[in-house]
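Can't paste images in this forum, so I'm doing it all in text. The chain is below; anyone willing to post the predicted structure tokens underneath?
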Amino acid sequence: MKIAKIALLLSLMLVLVMAFSSCGDNKGTEGLDFSLLEDGTYGVRANSFVPLQLTLNKVVIPDTYKGKPVTEILPDGFENVSNLTEITIPNSVTSIGKDAFYDCTG
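Text version of the structure:
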């Protein structure tokens, strides 16, 4: 009986952990940099670390970062990310900066 109660308690704890972990921000693709904009939202770009840019081919931009909307792909944000072949942009993004995808040959 005692083992059954412990198993039930552990199961409930697991359900709660899973439920609350899904409430956080969608992190999106690793290797993205976020900049706080004047309006309190965030802009996004590829990390400037060159080897990462060479391997970044599928990107998922999250709709929020640190609890605030991601509303812009920054100017030159993915410039020269030559292997980029697929990008998922959420509805929260309302602006794509100049040359955001310049020289993305993939």
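The beta strands are 32-36, 42-46, 58-60, 64-65, 68-73, 86-88, 95-96. The chain has a mean pLDDT of 79.
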